[in-house]
Structure prediction request, 775 residues.
Amino acid sequence: MADRPNRRVKLFALNEYKQWDYLGSGNVTSVASESQGLFLVVRSESSGTQILESEVLPDTPYQRQKDTLIVWSEAENHGMALSFRNSESCYETWEAICRVQGRDPSVNVTQDLLDDLEEEIDETLETDDLDELPNCELSKLKQIANLVTSAFSSPLRRRRLALVLENETYIKKLLQMLHSCESVGYTEGLYHLHTIIKGIFFLDKTALLDILFSEECIMNVIGCLEYDPAFDQPKKHREFLTQNANFKEVIPITTCKLRQRIHQTYRVQYIQDILLPTPSVLDENCLSALKTFIFLNKMEIIHMLQSDDKFLPQIFEQLKDKTIDNDKRRELLFFLKEFGSFAQVLKPRSKDALFKTLTQMGILPTIKVIMSLDDYQIKSSAIDIFAHLVEHNPSVIREFLLEEEQQNEKGSLLINLIIKQMICDTDPEKAGALHIMGLLRFILDPENMIAMPQKCERSKFLNFFYKQCMHNIIVPLLATTSEDIFEEGHILGDDINSRYCLHDYQTAQLLGIILELLTFCVQHHTYYIKYYILRKDLLRNVLILMKSRHTFLVLCALRLMRRIIGLKDEVYNCYIIQGNLFEPVVNAFLNNGTRYNMLNSAVIELFDYIREENIKSLLTHVVEKFYKTLEWIDYVQTFKNMKIKYEREKERKRQKSLNSLQNSKRARDLEKNKVSYKGDKENLEEGHSGMRPMESDFQDDYDISMEIENTTKNEDKVNVPKRTSSGDIKFTYSHSAGDANGTDNPMRLVDYSDDDEEEDKEDEAKFRKRPHFNP
Prediction:
């Protein structure tokens, strides 16, 4: 059989570790002789030496796979394989083998292979086409693109392709073809380059990224990614990066390596964010090598800047200088903001050291100076920097604010400047205000105060906040719901009432944010917020918002009241009853009609909670004040069940009082009987008998009834709060009030017992479901 160029093959052998080794490539021939039989001979195409001579024996198992592969086993753990370039030459060789063994060449197996050999061969030999990549030529770009695309069919092919591509010269030659394609207008070639380069990224190998992101290659990489086949016209990313995205040194950088690393990181981040597709949720680990590359670059930049003794001090010195123009200050802030975002990638210990350095350099006083300026963009950047500090260590912020108060800087406290920025947010959706509200919650969260050095620090800070800051937060609320003149010292000026309207959407957005913060305070600052609400009669103003046309704001107001009632604090309960604060809730509920919506459900849940938790004073107040208004509602049994519970407990109270008086009467009668017995005994001895008049029994029963009636009347009396000259609410009690758990409630009409709660639940079980109403 003569040698032919189309019989080029690659030769593999199975080693002792059951891995396939590549022995080389060459041309295969079938050499036949009458005395010795048929031999398969392969000569190396590079050296011309013989690398295989295998006799075809009748009992040797052969197998043809995928039309281009012949595998056989000469002995245990000694497998051989020939991978042909085309199927025709493979079939010719297979026919020769079948003739020797007397087999039908249309069958792909002459005898069964060893199990291990059959399992291992597919995955290994499917990568034989990746051992040598095609030359970097315009005519081969399609072949290279198909090769890269096919590599993602199995992990083994991906690893093999990445290993081959680590040859730096191959990738560099590929990237140089970009200019050749552009110069001749070879659009198809440019599309192939896009496919190739994007595929190399998704191989996810750091060694390949080092080549792609080298100073020599990175702009060509961006150029290849411009030609996405999904778009008719290429995007001019290189033009943008070289002409529009100019690098500004706010402070001169003297280290060449630092400058290069900053340029590289910016461009790599641009590739990740703009040029490469966003990985789906299922591909979280996709492009992990790229993310790691950016992470390590940022760490290196931060460490290099920290090690420069002059760089950061010059930044803060210029930021504090009130004579510099706003453009320069804006550039400095943008740099500091990006520097802070880079710091998020640091390990905790390194991050602590960095923020400690920034604090010592005066970053908080610097932010305070910036927040005093009249430039929204600059102040927004300052808020972003402030957010990094708050999220890292809110205790440092609290300590700074307390030091400000001690220095008598009440008129320009940093936190009040932050609050003003929240209230004056110009974004229609109030995104900035929402962000600042989150920062305030983080600062005010008691969970973040546990690790403070002194135990009294928590109460000290909260005292400061409610004294110096809370009145600024509620300014828009009071301006919307009250015509009263505000106390002096708030942050928004004298024309505050003209800025807010109850039905304005942006006002409603802001008030919703403020109510969310107040709700957080009610939950976490029980003592401080309680007496602030009572002193300012704040809940009354909040419930005025129940008249708003914006349902989300109505729900925010209702949520605050629900949170207050959920505390089951009798001081709050007394305040609600005395102020008749259920009235706006009931009015909003009635105005909503029978529409089955969130407002309807929220109000019903509120009253259900009062009944189920047996909040006695509120249940009595609601039934006595509003039951006649609500008794027509029959699609839920909430109000009827409240009435049933109220009547049952009232009757139990009456029975208890009656039993108590009867017991007292019996005790008195017993005492009288003892005296009478002695008198009767004496009379009997004298021959006389005594008789008790019937009128006395009637008189005793009448006295008992009158005493019960007087007791009930006295219990129905309610003390009315008095408003002081300052506008605060003052409560008076006829006897000492109980504690927060309601152990001795001055407003209590009846004394409920919890013995029959299970009975109530059984009675009310049939009313659990309700019909749906169309809006």
User: Anything to note?
Assistant: The first strand starts at residue 8 and ends at 14. The mean pLDDT is 81. The chain is about 60% helix and 5% strand.
